[in-house]
Amino acid sequence: MATYISRTLGTPTDNKKWTFSAWVKVTDQSESDRGLFNVGGNASGYTRLNFAGSHQLEYDNKISPSAWDGRRFATARRRDPAAWYHIVAVFDSDNGTPADRMITYFNGERISAYDSDLDPSSGAVSGNTSGETVRIGVVETSAYFNGNMSWVQFVDGLALAPTEFGETDATSGMWKIKTDVYGTPGNNGFCLKMEDRTNLDLDSSSNAHTFTTTGTPTATYDNPSNNFCTMNPLDNYWLQGTFTNGNTTVETSSAEYGYATGTLAAAGGKWYWEMKLEQEVTATNYISMGIAGRPTDSADGLGYESDAIAYQAYDGKIRDSGTLTTYGNTWGVGDIIGVAMDLDNSKLYFSINGVWQDSGDPTSGATGTGAHSMSTAVANTLLGAYYPAFGDHGGSGYTTGIGNFNFGNGYFKTTAVTEPADADDAGIGAMEYDVPAGYYCLCTRNIKAYGGAA
Hints:
This protein is mainly beta. The chain has two domains: 4-214, Sandwich (Jelly Rolls); 242-450, SPRY domain (Jelly Rolls, Sandwich), CATH 2.60.120.920. The chain has two helices and 34 strands. The chain has helices at residues 375-380, 444-450; strands at 4-8, 17-25, 34-41, 45-51, 56-64, 67-77, 85-92, 102-106, 109-110, 114-118, 133-136, 138-139, 143-144, 148-156, 166-168, 175-177, 190-192, 212-214, 242-244, 249-251, 258-261, 270-279, 287-292, 308-312, 317-320, 323-326, 336-342, 347-352, 355-356, 372-373, 387-392, 402-406, 411-412, 415-416. The strands form seven sheets. It has an eight-stranded antiparallel beta sheet, with no helix packed on it. A hairpin with a 4-residue loop joins β27 (336-342) and β28. The longest helix is centred in the C-terminal third of the chain and has 7 residues, at 444-450. It is elongated and about 75 Å long. The model has no long low-confidence stretch (mean pLDDT 92).
């Protein structure tokens, strides 16, 4: 569904000078434009910022639908579905240096390589004009952004450096967010933190502007300070699946079989996640849920490779490195499968609708009550770490399977988990069923605190 946030602009502080900043996670891998920011109207001219279908950052100022007065089309292609990007666009047409009249920054660094590079004319006006509309998550009312956004700020009347919104971490050297609302936003300025899950269009700036949300955005705990796992659309060569809903929904192919892995892997610690099956493969349910020690490198189904383990829906068995063993009950459409992965003791547990199979107890440690031993997969793992994995081995002629994942964001597709939701021991996430004691949601903050990462 088309979703974006908008408001009608008042009298600008300066329609020739402003700064836009946003933290975004570009989950959509489609070859279509994905709008971040648009001010103005299509007929009268506008200023826009978006990811083009080629995954290149595009920043334009148009004085009419067919005439540019300023354009920056970056050479680099940005398509990492696991990363939060920081994008800053500066408009300053009165600047005496033509190259400084439109500036783009990526993760704190000024972009200098462009496929198309047109300086605005001196004194060129932008779309930041009284009576026009500012839109977040769309350009030209048609190219919608399909991904995550956080801390979207617009400062009217000032040309600012990216260091106002981010900084270099002293330990890792990585660019990280500053969670500060800019103090002087100007007349049309705003700050949409998107932290209030019940009010995602809340303006936290001193202006407290009222915005309108079109469509129904799905709330997420995923943010630049704590990056959550999703499924990985780049690990899709063999599966040929379809990834939607911020890459938390995976639809397998009717012509291929294989599996996809998650964006985050862990090398130690204890981890929990859930998947709700929306549609199964016919005529026999070949859907499998489990883990893998590497991204997919063959057309084999999950569990056939030497370091992958699958819990199979149609027979309730475990397939580990190609070997089948009896394990639990069968499962199907509407069932929620929980995975508890204990890498400290090399044990793996699966639940169906909150019931641990084989009378399992994920808190039993080295005893591994009702656990499946990961010893074979551990001995063969390529990376020394394990990803969530999902797939089928139905092959050509079967219908597709659909799985909706919850790594802690509290949703299966666009449906919230049943309240009260359950957080992990760190107070992070929202799960349908109880997170076993000592287990955590798979996100960067937890990986840093409780386990190893790959």
